[in-house]
Amino acid sequence: MNEQVTRADGSVKSAVRALAILDLLTQSAEPLRFPEIAARLEYPQSSLHGLMKTLHQAQWIDFDEGTRQYTLGIKAWEAGHAYLRGRSLAERAQPFMDQVRDELNETVQLAILDSGRHNVYLAKSEGNQRLVLESHVGARLPAHATGVGKVLLASLDNEEVRRRIGAAELEQYTSTTPRDLDELIGRLEKIRTDGYGTDDQEYTAGVRCVAVPILDHGGDVVAAMSVSVPVVRFTEALERDALVSLRSAAEQFSRALGYRGAMTA
To answer: What is the pLDDT of residue 84?
Structure first.
């Protein structure tokens, strides 16, 4: 039988069956053997073998040679993790971002790290100041030049940071942008010690920010939240207030994501 046949509704038969396998393993509380999968889905064993092999090779499912059982693979975990970091994460973050905005009347942003060296902004909450940061949800900026970006990079080890940057030259936006990889890693080390990061006009002249990490249930950094302020309003007192407000919101948000450990003071 041609597994690539298109059904009346326009869907591809083999794709529908592959998704049904993933759905079955997602819903099952226990690992499943091949005969159990075949019986529940009522697929011909010949075609099911091919689908299972394809999903296993692509790491969407795992197979234990000892028990002859199948479970979801690393790709399924990565997909679910990406979903939580994306749309769902932004929606869940908004009340905590609004809380910081209401306390400071300044722009608050949430960002994640992509698979390379850029941070992507997922959400934004603006105060009613006349002079505000020009930015938008969906923007991708080089992580080495932003507060949220450096906080996200600091969650990686130095070897991974070097791998992601590779041989690329760090873009220089202002005189305070990190000039090279060694300088960047020095700043990341400070962030790891302090538990927060800053942006001293490193991407946009006239704008400073403070940023803190957001942790998931396993203690991994899944996002960063920042307060961005024009330098004309950025005082030491405001920086202290921003850090207190951000840390409080970040702890509440991290707890909402299931984190139960101690937050950095």
So the answer is: 58
